[in-house]
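Usage

Read records sequentially. Each one opens with the input sequence:
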Amino acid sequence: MSVFNNLPAAPSAAKKPVTDTRHGITRTDDYAWMRADNWQAMFKDPSLLDAELRKHLEAENAYMEAAMADTKDLQKVLFAEMKARIKEDDSSIPMKDGPFAYGTAFVTGGEQPRYFRIPRDADHKDESGRKLLLDGDKEAAGKDYFRLAGIDHSSDHAFGIWGYDDKGSEYFTLRVRNLETGEDLPDVIENTGGGGAWAPDGKSFFYTLQDENHRPSKVFHHIIGQPQSADRLVYEEEDPGFFMGVGGSLLDDYIYIDIHDHETSEYYLLSTKDLTAAPKLVAKREEGIEYSMTEGGDVFYILTNDGGAKDFKIMEAPVEAPGKENWKEIVPHEPGRLILSHMAFARHLLWLERRDGLPVIMIRDRKSGEEHSIAFAEEAYSLGLQGAAEYDTDVVRFSYSSMTTPSQLFDYNMVTRERVLLKTQEVPSGHNPDDYVTRRVFAEAHDGEKVPVTLLYRKDTKLDGSAPCLLYGYGAYGITIPAGFNTNCLSLADRGFVYAIAHIRGGKDKGFSWYEDGKMEKKVNTFKDFISAADHLVKEGFTSYENIIAEGGSAGGMLMGAVANMAPEKFAGIIAAVPFVDVLNTMLDDTLPLTPPEWPEWGNPIESEEEYRWIAAYSPYDNVGEKPYPPILALSGLTDPRVTYWEPTKWVAKLREKATGEAPILLKTNMAAGHGGKSGRFQRLEEIAFEYAFAIKVAGKM
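and closes with the structure output:
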């Protein structure tokens, strides 16, 4: 029996067939017209959206509102629950750097963070001693969308670079603030990637400029007081297939220019002793070879997969000659031990690794070579390594949480091995970890692989197949979904849901090979793993097919589209947030921001017929068929540069045209936001409450 009754007629999109022939294969796309030719300009000024498209998106929003009208009260209740679990006037533990310690805080009712500093050894709880550097709520006033890129102080602590995006299009404007007076200087830097790297003298900084196709293709050097037009071009990346970032070393000796796609990287170094010099190449890019660098005084430490080190190793090279010919192995490659990141301080080298799906922080004394680890005993947990803002320190900061344990922040002395608990995440409305169970189970995949699935549910939940389940998945770019504390999903667990995360191939949850087995020609493993996770949860009595709501966003939205086509009967509903569903058309369009850098992840269908056929075989939009799809909720952002608005819009139109069942296909387009949805902390909760209300409605638990 349908939970959606008395709906108005769904919007019907116009068909304007466009034919495309590649490699002798011809396709017809009835909805290609939804990709407006002026998309670059529209991202900067949404009022330029084509009138026909605007009318269609508004009609879709109206239909969605009608379908979800009976959940309005539930959404309010869910929002109130989630908000009540957040300490509204929360603040961070400031990080010490020179004469000051820097932190962030929120005020009751505030949507945006406030950045402050205090004297180095002052009591951080004494708010009277805080100097407000940037008030996010004040800067966001009157704007439909506002996202801060934070504030980065100069080495002399006199100035700060801060950035903001007020369209959702991820074109950031940079400003320079006098940290003593709180006034912004006249400098305005437009169309940047969102941050900068200070020169040691505090009189200039480096930043990346986004080109007309939304790619960070140039690094510029800006001298305070000069117009942006006078900025010196330091480096230009000619290959549109690479991302680029700029940063500085802890010792202020070098500016790093980091160039990479999803499997290849390259670094240039600029010594801060001569800011006018040309940056120097460290090791030229080689396809499939990744490396990243951190400075350790007279050496660089290099994390790399060079030489067949699939799960990565750490090398050392002299600062004066960091070229590959001088790399010397100091932490060897160990299959099954994936090294994720590294950092160095005056007396210690640290790295974050993952063994058997769980993270471990490793610490090595640089002088003696002695190593020890920081690990925990729970079945599934999450670690974050924040490090320190100063190089000459023995104390670093890390965070710990699990699905049932609120986040804890520690300072850790690498010499004495003493850990000091600085803060435990407060849940103002109350939280008893003993009321919940977190487990990690393993689903057998189609080829015999074991897929980890992390579960959270209340102890009193009946595991007889009757419980509804929200099954979340991502599975791309090597991104691992942590088994960390999430106050929002408690609203589902408290309503009898089993909340599950499927750690499918395409992530690095079980090492680098887990990623390789879920990309390019093996991409279908990602989708099959997710379906296997659903099968396992049903087999073990955690839920049943008529009770599983699947959820994923972005590349996880592609996953949602694929499993909807492959096994629609195994899901009661599907939530696809900013879903990357028009994969083939997007990978054929090399003008789009992410297309060339994404070819190593999905394949290049322009150059290769074989890769064209891989993608065509699973691309959700291209494989929509005449079948009874479950209720689907697609979420979109008008100014999203990552998954453009027309992807979910086209997908919904085609689903509605082809679906043989009566289940509604809903599209919600945020007309004032991009990829991440709304920007404020409580505004974001409203969106989550909406998604959860859909899941609860579909599960028949209203």
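Summary fields computed downstream for this record:
- The mean pLDDT is 94.
- The first strand starts at residue 18 and ends at 22.
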